[in-house]
Amino acid sequence: MAKKRKSSATNSSSTLNKSADQVRRDFEIFAQGIDRLKSLQVELDTIDCTGFEKEEQQIRQKLKTVSEIPSIEIAIKSLKQKIGKKVTTHKRKRHHLHKDVHGLSASIERIQDELNIVTKRLASPCKQDQLKQIKTAISHLRDRLITEESALQNVSKATAGLVTKSQVRSLRTLIETLRDRIDDEHIELVRLAGKTATLGTRGQLQSLKEMIASLDETNKILIQKLNTEGITLKELTTSTKTLSTRSQLQSIKSDLKLQENTAQSKLQNLSKELINIKDQVTVEHSLLDSLTKLTNTLGTKEQAMSINNQLQTVKQLLDPPKGSVDSGIEMLIDTTTHPFLVAIKRALTDRINSKELQLSQTLREDLKNREQTFKKKNQALQDNFQKRKQKLELDSKKAYEKKLSTKLQKEVDQRFNELVKSEVVKRDEDLKNTFELTVDKKVKEILLVESKKQKDESHSEHEEFQKEKKAFFIKAKRIIQQEKKRIELHLSKEFEHKLHQQLKEQEVMFKAKKEALEHQMKKILTI
User: Fold this and answer.
1) How many CB atoms lie within 10 A of CB 136?
2) Exposure b/e, 23-54, CB count within 10 A at least 16 = b
3) Is residue 56 within 8 Å of 45, Cβ to Cβ?
4) Which distant-in-sequence residues (6+ apart) come within 8 Å of 296 by Cβ?
5) In 47-95, where does DSSP find H-type helix?
6) Residue 293's pLDDT is what?
7) pLDDT-above-90 percentage for the chain
8) Do 277 and 335 meet the contact criterion of CB atoms below 8 Å apart?
9) What are the angstrom distances between the C-alpha of 162 and each of 47, 159, 424, 496?
């Protein structure tokens, strides 16, 4: 019986593990499909679908179902081919962040054009020292412009690169891996809870062992009583009806077999004793016959009277009193032999009946007491099991929520910050290298042009040029600062909005997975 219970427990735990693994695989496949749908939606947003609005609507309707991913990919490829065949090239949709950066570059180009116009006005010759002063002033002003432009470009490109497709995908993969880890830990907790629910606690196993030992002791006591006092088989079978467990029934069946063997041996011994009694009775009858013959032969009355008196006393002793006789014993003994045997049988039946009544009363009382103790122990075990089960469920939920609140958020924040820092550093290095090269080329070209033009400039026009230049640079600084503030506010708001949307989508996905896992846990626990 114990082996069967162990095998059933192992089978139930293996089925639980299989079902949990299948559910996790299904969730992983579903999450991959959703990510692919989102990437296809982003790809469709980048395409300029002017003139192909019907195809775009059809593809967007299919983006809601995971099973139609291959048909969506084919439709997007065909749409790209149709757009490529057109002669008129349409500009793709640009993000409004890139539009702001494009506007900044246009304003800077305007400033450079105005500088060129001012330099053309000044065409009179000038001294070498004045030219040097002008060149130094122009170089200082251009250095300031370059630093401000580089700062603006770094800020704009860094903020525009924070939320790229590759970063979003990498963040999603990280979140999915972390969720898989937590799901694995949660499934292991559920599996352990199921094992504890099926096997029970150590205290329960010890109590069951004690119950089995007590039942074995009661069976031994019953066997001893049956061997010593001769309990009937009918009452023993009626007492076994109250017992419920399989182990008790098996032990009682073995006791019944032993009791039948002992009863048969006792009946055989009784039959042998009765045969001996019959032999003795035949001898006594022969003696009585011989005595009667002697009395007949003898002639004296006194001797005859004494012999008759002795015979009457013997008959009174041998005559049995009236009463009931057991049918089981009467079948073994022939009652027609002599009334002395009937008296012996009645005495034996009285003794057996009295002992049977005593044993039946004791057995009934013992059974009632044992039933009450067994019920109490069973209720205590069930209450203990329910308490342990509730504690395990609460502990698993608390541990799961703690891991979600601490580990997930920390790991996501760390990975996100590391990615942002690494990409910002790369972008800064690339921008510095490219910007320095372009600035050096432009400065050399402008210096050559201005050196040729400023040879013909006059002193008065030079003062006006400086005044106009100062006013122009003041205006340029104001415009750049205003645009810088506006772009920074716009970028920060948009970045926060995008992060908020992504976090909401991830929370919805995570809640759905969590509810599905809790539903499966409830099903498993009910099983």
Assistant:
1) 10
2) bbeebeeebeeeeebbebeeebeebebeeeee
3) no
4) none
5) 53-62, 69-85
6) 56
7) 0
8) no
9) 22, 5, 8, 11
